[in-house]
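thread: overnight batch results

M.L. [08:02]
morning all. the overnight job finished for the chain we discussed friday. pasting input first so we're all looking at the same thing
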Amino acid sequence: MSINFSNFRKSKLFILYILSFIFAFTASIPAYINSSFIQSLTTQQAVGLIFALNAVFSLVALIYIPKLLKKFGNYKITLYLSILYFINFLGLAFFHSTFLVLFCFLISGALSTAIYFNFDIFIEHNSPDMVTGGIRGTYLTSLNLAWLFSPWLAGIIVEQFSFRMIYLIVALIMIPILFIITSSLKDFKDPDYTTFNMFETIKSISSNKNIKNIITSGFMLQFFYSWMVIYGTIYLNHYVGFDFVTSGIIFSIALIPFVVVQIPLGYLADKKLGEKELLTLGYILMGVSTAIIPLVHNRSILIWTIILFVGRTGAAIVEVMNDTYFFKQVNDKNLSIINFYRLVGSFAYVVAPLIAVILMMFMPIYGIFYILGLLMIFAIRYTLTIKDTL
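M.L. [08:03]
and the structure it wrote out:
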């Protein structure tokens, strides 16, 4: 079947892909310097606690956003939150008070999480089940294209200017995002949202083994992201000895799988192969590559790039298979379950840093990578018990 590219460019999905790509820069450019920036204001021990509190703010945002969606609609909430996001990054760029900077950092996590949730509603509204894998793969690739270049860009900006210049640039990126939202999404027709009830939602999920296990898999993936984003960057910069430009190049190359594999794997999951096998492969790659990290004692850029590349290949596989499988089980009317899916991801960002802080009271920082590797292998028990959609 041929595709009319002219019509596709005018479609809501294409607009959402472009919007997602641009918005992803607002999270990805600061992501690999946030922990170092926070450490420069506080201490290494405090970094994990601050990131955990950041995730608590995100949890609160996800709990309350269904009520806001029901009252105001997805378009208005997305627009209002995006304006606040823009203002918040200006605060990170220009405030000199440590308290105000840290407060803006906490707020940024909540706003970003809520906006991504809004995007989920837009995307799911335009996603027929028979092509969910392809749509989700393309959506995630549009996000990850931004992540591919961001570590390298962030490294250059920090080395040439300062941490704060990162946040000013991100604020400027929000300007075209606001234009796209106001010009292209205001005609969105909201479904009849259900009110989020935590206990009823947990009860509903618990009765469905497939949804329960894929949500658990999502938690494990976000746990991995949390430790690697917070402590992987610190480890490369402060213990291995790479500068920000070098580590930025390493991370950028390591993120290539997120751009290369997710679209074909999404289509593969729709047409040829179930998600179970690919999820299991992804976790094996994540577990083995992470557990190897403490065993490497040199500063070879090639070796470190290969290790992180293999781990991110696994994460890219798990990410697209998680979303493909989950969104085949729900639709845009299942707001409570979609909310809980994202809520669990944010909860991982609360739990993971706190566990790391406790563990580092008894072991050096490299020890947590052994534990993270074992946790990823343990996650296979959840992927093996889901029922494939093919």
